[in-house]
Design goal:
The complex is a heterodimer.
Chain A lengths: L3 H4 L8 H11 L12 E2 L9 H10 L1 H4 L2 E2 L2 E2 L1 H6 L7 H14 L11 E4 L1 H13 L5 E5 L6 H4 L7 E5 L11 H13 L4 E7 L11 H14 L2 E5 L15 H7 L11 E6 L12 E5 L2 H10 L7 H12 L1 H28 L3 E2 L7 E5 L9 H13 L3 E2 L1 E2 L10 E5 L5 H31 L1
Parallel strand pairs in A: 1-13, 5-6, 5-7, 7-8, 8-9
Antiparallel strand pairs in A: 2-3, 4-10, 9-10, 11-12, 12-15, 14-15
Helix pairs in contact in A: 6-13, 7-12, 14-16
Chain B lengths: L3 H4 L8 H11 L12 E2 L9 H10 L15 H6 L7 H14 L11 E4 L1 H13 L5 E5 L6 H4 L7 E5 L11 H13 L4 E7 L11 H14 L2 E5 L15 H7 L6 H4 L1 E6 L12 E5 L2 H10 L7 H12 L1 H28 L3 E2 L7 E5 L9 H15 L1 E2 L1 E2 L10 E5 L5 H37 L6 H17 L1
Helix pairs in contact in B: 5-13, 6-12, 14-16, 16-17
Classes of the chains: A alpha/beta, B alpha/beta.
Chain lengths: 443, 473
């Protein structure tokens, strides 16, 4: 009666990532009304710089009021459904992205396809680049949403490129080749590699070496590179962010065939914290991809009302310069807070320089080095400590004990409360462990 | 290297519908700068009631400025709101609006509503939910050309037409339904459902109770789905009044039955409110699994929270919406009459219609031959010589050549008047040309028979007689 897609639950939303989100929604922490509720540390939102945007809005009421040069532009916007997108917005977006990349690359606005969020951009790229049953290789750990966004309606498969804590989860040539062989042994056709740079959930930017390994590999196999650069403006400390476009430029590969194989995804959901506005995009030098993706964007266009607003915000270069600087300052401070507070209770984080989260090492807290133990620990943290954090298994990490903890979607107070709760939990666990250890020794 | 979806052009955008659009973009009419340019009559937009919305915005500046009723900023909450269940206030207001449009004879449960970025997204999402690749949906012809892309391209679903004919005003018949079903079977396609647009695009008519009953009976017998795209439901300006599929289910006591679970409605504010740029669409379904699946799928095309909030405020203003619906209908009715009468002066008839933003126009008598080639030939003349972008029936999969969709709500009155003048001029010159050529043919024949030639007016008279004879068919 209904399609297989609806009946088979292949939407990937059963994972603990989504379960945690749902649990939080049922019992959310509130400083006054629900101080023992669940603190949400599983959502990679950027709530740190909303005040800056609000202050911009207060000074630019004409923009939200849909007025320009003394006249109303409501009618033009209401009728504007051209899937090529608002030209002024694409121009501003291209320029903003160039700034984020330190003006080390030039972006052509006509190579931008606007989509309702990067969720839509990623799925659209799959439809353009792969047939049902084809494979994309993705380094682990990766954003749990990819299981739904890339696979569900497209029929595309994901084969993981296994990364390991032994080298800080860096991508190696060996790991990519292994993944490729995996796919081949399953008789699957590999169409490309998808990377998130800066990484979610690691919070690290890719090194030159890693990007070049990927470019070389894809050039050799003539497969696509999709680089999801959604966290590109959240890089708060060195090393600098290196976009795949910059790497191509540096290696003079812009006129080569690989130029047609590289596609960048971006969105304003993380850098500007505007996840509700659904502002995403695809950037590609491949004309055919741009042409098809543009038509496909009909299925997820950005509201013209929103295009108009964000085009004015990011087109205000003076404001954006200030915003970026201040936003990064705040992210860095918050990141340091989380890292140092975790350190104080004996928990280490992967060294990171970007993103809205830390990749936290809780392997030593596992009752056994298994994923069952990881979920057991996650359950305790969710239901006892009342912190929603994301277990590494939901991100397809191949080693149990790692967790992603977000730091930019909570207030400082909530961060302090969460760390206190974690400290108390650690002390009780230690006490339990010591008691258990004693019991074992005695018996 | 790239997927077959890109390389095989199955996006359906080669049709004349889109080509005419492009011709217009290259040479658009402008009163001052380009008075001989092409007048756009191929776009079903509603531009008649913007002043009402603008005035509302003027009187209610807060929602657009992210402020609530207490003048407090809710920018942060909205900026972070990406819950695919949608803004509750908006869904409540939207179902209330949908109910108002239907004269409050039915009510909708906001929990059964899924928000999508436009009806384009809603229709595709429903296909993903109801059909597997290769399954078919039956659609009455003529239909909206965009369906070829929206329903088929990425889903792999197929469309099999339910052929409707001018003989009975393009009404859906039982035999047409059965014929379409058989056709699908012959092609080894599994039929998953029927999709109707009610009121119809491009006909501009609302489905009769008889047609709706036929549809319900048919889906009941065949155990298939029915999607009712009711995107034009607020544009019904004349009797008969709009009968929604929900009305029929209610009146036949089929609510809460298995059949009701297979009926799904698509809606949007693009036509009734003239807001296609804001991407506001919705799916309404009584089937929990469909609602649940479609809700998750809406992640791929959510409505901007900024826009959801603005519209929730507009639609919650019941005094305004009541006034808007009534005034909008009145203006559409007036404009519709202008077009119908304007065409009548040129001896061109329209299908009698009571809704929509266009007329279904009968130009069969102007064809040089009763073929689709003849139709395209006429269409090209109208686009390039007369300077009107209208949509040929073949782009809407009409089974008879000579019908055209002409929009009336996307231009000013002055431009419509000008368009009508151009039509008169064109028809007069066509009549003249035809009668001259006919005159010449007769002369040639007479010359060979050595008979006296007849005066011109005799030939014109005989041509007029032929025109009248055609109309009466």
């Amino acid at each position: 009666m209904l399609s297989k897609k609806v009946l088979l639950d292949s939407h990937g939303e059963d994972s603990s990532y989504f379960v945690g989100l749902q649990m939080y929604q049922k019992n959310p922490y509130d400083h006054v009304h629900n101080p023992s509720g669940i603190i949400q540390m599983g959502l990679a939102e950027n709530q740190l710089s909303m005040d800056l945007l609000e202050s911009w809005l207060a000074k630019n009421s004409d923009v939200t009021g849909l007025k320009e040069n003394g006249g109303s532009i409501f009618k033009e916007l209401a009728l504007f459904q051209d899937y090529h997108g608002l030209p002024s917005f694409k121009k501003a977006l291209a320029e903003f992205m160039e700034e984020v990349r330190g003006r080390r690359v030039t972006l052509d606005p006509t190579k931008i396809v606007l989509t309702a969020g990067s969720t839509s951009a990623n799925e659209t790229l799959m439809f353009c680049l792969a047939e049902s049953g084809d494979v994309f290789l993705i380094p682990t750990p990766y954003y749990p949403g990819y299981d739904r966004d890339l696979k569900w309606r497209t029929g595309v498969e994901i084969v993981p490129i296994q990364c390991s804590s032994s080298n800080h989860f860096r991508i190696t040539k060996c790991a990519i080749e292994e993944a490729y062989k995996q796919a081949q042994s399953l008789n699957l056709n590999v169409k490309g590699v998808l990377i998130t740079n800066p990484s979610n959930p690691l919070g690290t930017t890719m090194t030159h070496e890693e990007i070049n390994i990927i470019i070389d590999f894809c050039l050799d196999k003539l497969i696509h590179i999709v680089s999801d650069e959604i966290f590109s403006a959240t890089v708060f400390s060195s090393p600098n962010f290196i976009s795949v476009l910059e790497a191509l430029h540096k290696r003079n590969l812009e006129d080569s065939i690989v130029n047609n194989l590289v596609h960048v995804v971006y969105s304003l959901s993380k850098d500007l914290g505007l996840s509700g506005f659904r502002v995403g995009m695809i950037y590609s030098n491949n004309e055919k991809v741009i042409s098809a993706a543009t038509k496909m964007s009909s299925f997820g266009l950005i509201s013209s009302q929103t295009q108009h607003l964000v085009s004015n915000i990011i087109g205000d270069k003076k404001f954006m310069k200030y915003y970026m600087k201040e936003n990064i300052k705040r992210l860095k401070k918050r990141h340091e807070m989380l890292v140092s507070k975790l350190k104080r209770i004996g928990i280490k984080c992967l060294k990171s320089n970007a993103g809205l989260f830390c990749w936290v090492d809780m392997r030593h807290l596992l009752s056994s080095k298994t994923f069952e133990a990881e979920i057991e620990l996650w359950n305790k943290i969710l239901f006892v400590t009342k912190l929603n954090i994301s277990p590494g298994s939901s991100c397809h990490c191949n080693e149990p004990g790692w967790f992603r903890i977000c730091f930019a979607n909570v207030s400082e107070d909530m961060l302090n409360v969460s760390m206190q709760r974690l400290k108390a939990f650690m002390e009780t666990s230690c006490h339990d462990d010591v008691c258990n250890a004693r019991r074992i020794r005695v018996s | 290297m790239l997927s077959a979806k890109i390389t095989c052009n199955s996006h359906g955008q080669d049709s004349s519908y889109f080509i005419g659009w492009e011709a217009y973009e290259k040479n658009p009419y402008d009163e001052i700068k380009n008075p001989n340019g092409i007048i756009q009559m191929g776009l079903a937009e509603n531009q008649l009631s913007f002043d009402l919305l603008e005035s509302w915005l003027q009187n209610n500046p807060q929602p657009a400025a992210f402020k609530n009723h207490n003048d407090q900023s809710i920018f942060k909450e909205l900026a972070l709101f990406q819950d695919y269940h949608g803004l509750p206030a908006f869904k409540n207001a939207l179902v209330r609006f949908m109910s108002d449009i239907r004269g409050n004879t039915v009510t909708f449960n906001p929990n059964n509503l899924v928000l999508t970025a436009g009806a384009t997204s809603a229709n595709e999402t429903l296909m993903f939910c109801l059909a597997n690749p290769g399954d078919a949906f039956l659609i009455p012809t003529p239909y909206y050309p965009g369906f070829d892309r929206d329903l088929k391209w990425r889903t792999g679903a197929e469309i099999v037409p339910i052929q409707c004919s001018s003989l009975n005003g393009f009404r859906i018949t039982k035999s047409a339904l059965e014929e379409a079903y058989k056709q699908a079977e012959k092609q080894n396609l599994k039929v998953k459902g029927i999709l109707v647009t009610n009121p119809s695009n491009p006909l501009g008519t609302s489905l009769s109770l008889h047609e709706l009953d036929l549809l319900v009976n048919f889906i009941s017998t065949k155990n298939i789905h029915l999607i009712s795209d009711e995107i034009y439901s607020g544009t019904v300006f004349n009797s008969p009044s709009f009968i929604s599929i929900m009305d029929v289910l209610k009146n036949r006591n089929l609510v809460n039955t298995e059949i009701a679970k297979r009926v799904h409605i698509v809606y949007s504010l693009s036509k009734d409110l003239g807001l296609p740029g804001f991407r506001i669409g919705a799916i309404y379904s009584n089937d929990e699994l469909v609602v649940s699946g479609a809700t998750k799928m809406s992640s791929f095309g959510l409505i901007s929270s900024q826009t959801q909030y603005l519209l929730s405020e507009i639609l919650s203003d019941n005094k305004f919406t009541k006034m808007y619906l009534s005034e909008n209908r009145r203006r559409l009715k007036e404009r519709h009459e202008m077009l119908v009468q304007g065409l009548q002066k040129s001896g061109i008839r329209c299908l009698q219609s009571n809704a929509g933003l266009f007329c279904w126009v009968d130009m069969r008598h102007l064809l040089s031959s009763k073929t689709f080639e003849g139709e395209i030939e006429l269409w090209k003349k109208i686009v390039y010589e007369v300077g009107l972008n209208i949509s040929p029936g073949s782009s809407c999969h009409c089974s008879e050549p000579g019908w055209f969709r002409v929009c009336f709500a996307n231009m000013s009155e002055e431009i419509l008047v000008l368009a009508m003048q151009r039509v008169i001029t064109f028809v007069e010159s066509t009549v003249k040309k035809n009668s001259q050529s006919r005159h010449q043919q007769l002369l040639n024949r007479n010359a060979s028979r050595r008979t006296k030639s007849l005066p011109k007016w005799v030939f014109e008279l005989s041509f007029q007689r032929e025109l009248i004879a055609t109309d009466e068919r």
